[in-house]
Amino acid sequence: MSMREQFERACEVIPGGVSSPVRAFGSVGGTPVFIASAAGPRVFDTDGRAYLDLVGSWGPALLGHAHPDVVAAVQAAAARGLSFGAPTLAEVELAELIRTRVPAAEKVRFVSTGTEATMTAIRLARGATQRPLIVKFAGCYHGHSDGLLAAAGSGLATAGQPGSAGVTAAAAAQTLVLPYNDTTALAAAFDRHGDRIAAVITEPAAANMGVVPPAPGFNAALRQITAKHGALLIFDEVLTGFRVGPAGWWGLENTAAELDPDLFTFGKVVGGGMPLAALGGPAAVMDLLAPLGPVYQAGTLSGNPLATAAGIATLTLADDAVYASVDAAAARLSTSVGAALEAAGVPHRVQHAGSLFSVFWGEAPAAEPVRNYAQAQAQDPRRYQAFFHAMLEGGVALPPSAFEAWFLSAAHDDEALTGIEAVLPQAAEAAARVRPEPRPVPVTPPKAAKGMVSLVGGGPGDPGLLTLAGADCLAEADVVLYDHLAPYESLQLARPGAELVDVGKLPRGEFTPQEDINRLLIEHARAGKRVVRFKGGDVFVFGRGGEEWEACNAAGIPVQIIPGVTSATSAPGLAGIPVTHRGLSQGFTVVSAHVGPESPRSTLNWEALATNATTLVVLMGVKTLPEVCAGLVSRGMDASTPAAIIHKAASPDMGVVRGTVSTLAQLAAEAGITAPAITVIGAVAGLDLA
Ligand SMILES: *Cc1c(COP(=O)(O)O)cnc(C)c1O
């Protein structure tokens, strides 16, 4: 049966085909690999194909898979009986092993999963403090109990689920979620709610949003502030415990012995691959649990003899040499991964916490270290998808999500590491071929700002054809400088107190020198006003927007442009004349005819315009219309070429006069057409789609 068929069969009877969501490959795509067996650094799929494994059952396989001594211990325990529902010496032995390594865990209670351990730790903290609230950090994962699912990492980080359905608002409201590594936010939360916070739960080194080590002093700050406010500190070492060192993260960081939390949770390695987890802490806290204390907790299979046997065997075997070899393997592999990605030009960042490491993908993490969940989420997971599948193809099983740590074991010897390293270059190349995520276009339109000039294209006249950004700018302006081409109707959008200046009516009439307009723009901006230069059509089509821009720049005034809908195409459009039309015209040329073809001041090549077979759109050519039309015909344009002139486009008085290039000037004069008007010459002017 192919992987696909097995998965389909699984999906028939198991939701999503899996017993835990991240296994479904949702974040990397494709079909999950069904595993039949595992040994040392390898897992084997149901077709017998071997993979060098970097999942390690998500952490437990510290010694490698199916270590013979661990398997033997479990087999021996199984032969003695699977479960008794009564105390066993094996539990005592495992608790003693834990306490030897982590003396701050004076007493230990066994449960079956990490979820149970954290859930119980929370209940215990509430019972001990008689307070309701819990603080957790975004991106930290503490299992799937209701109150701890808010902004959790791990599977939730990639499932795209904001949290979980089925968690009541009341339960979620008891959890305050803060950014990781942010002592300021922590202090603020305690200032406001300090007397109601039962506990802060943290991953003392976060590894469920990718690997995010604590900033120096962060864990110490947690200890201080919780102690000061009488709240408990819970170190969730389900992942880091007995993995990053003999005494977990606590053992790595606790050099000053100032860092003892009130509770630990352990899981994963402590059960050696069997369902076993634990919580531990000072006797004064732990003795609040039933049967000694009032906080109830129980479990039919808790402290199960097979699980405790696996835990004892694993912890007994996990000596300093094991940790040294896992550390060395992690250092070597993370360096090789970084080098391969570097060589392929893949933007990335490798982050470490002890022997745990992960890769963050994309420009954002490459630019600065990832310190919290928001930064972790800024990575580009598509690069990982490509990398993941190329590695899988090459026989290396990575965690199927960019938000998970890579797990090494003492069984990852030189041969295994060399095997993994051999696949890295092709996987890095696959990641390099992924194009960077297109940058999101800002959805906030530009705003008029104090001391700034906004050059706003007003469109052809109808306020409905002003852009939303232009309308916003106009509504915020302190001063609006407009002229006779600007759509007057839209001036109503300006706020009541705004100063409206008709720069077309300044002394010397319509022909206000551009220098005067520039000077006014600069003066108003210097006075700290929001200045809008409101123009017709588009700012940069035939207006003198370019000069205004330059003048502001030269004066050191910030200036922005808000393009408008140009009249060159919108006026013909409103009149039902397309400027291009398949079969009639494959292009259009827009010219200004403020001087005509016979004027020595015209810089246009009128011979070319007469014969280039594109639609000709003429702006500022009402006075020169007779000269333009005659000039085109004398330079070779067919005299029967259709032509139309559109008058006062987008206003209620809009009118269209149609004819040919030889008759239009006469017809327009008879119709009394004055500026502003736009002429279209070419086959399209013979169409009337309106
Ligand atoms: C895995 C994990 C848990 C949950 O443990 P389960 O055994 O999956 O319930 C809790 N906390 C952390 C930090 C973990 O990594």
At the fourth CATH level, what is the homologous superfamily of the largest domain? Answer: Type I PLP-dependent aspartate aminotransferase-like (Major domain)
Strand count, sense and barrel status of the largest sheet are: 7 strands, mixed
CATH topology of the largest domain: Aspartate Aminotransferase, domain 2
- Calculate the mean pLDDT score and round it: 92
Q: What is the architecture of the largest domain at the second tier of CATH?
A: 3-Layer(aba) Sandwich
Cα-to-Cα separation, first versus last residue: 64 Å
Give the overall shape, derived from the CA principal axes. Answer: elongated
Give the class-level CATH name of the largest domain.
Alpha Beta
Summarize the structure in words.
The chain folds into four domains: 3-65 and 320-432, Aspartate Aminotransferase, domain 1 (Alpha-Beta Complex); 92-317, Type I PLP-dependent aspartate aminotransferase-like (Major domain) (Aspartate Aminotransferase, domain 2); 452-565, Cobalt-precorrin-4 Transmethylase, domain 1 (3-Layer(aba) Sandwich), CATH 3.40.1010.10; 568-686, Tetrapyrrole methylase, C-terminal domain (Methyltransferase, Cobalt-precorrin-4 Transmethylase, Domain 2), CATH 3.30.950.10. The protein has 23 helices and 23 strands. 35% of the residues lie in helices and 16% in strands. Strands 4-10-9-8-7-5-6 form a seven-stranded mixed sheet, sandwiched between helices. Strands 16-15-17-14-18 form a five-stranded parallel sheet, with helices on both faces. By secondary structure, it is α/β, with parallel strands linked by helices. Residues 158-162 have low confidence and may be disordered. Pyridoxal-5'-phosphate binds next to α4.
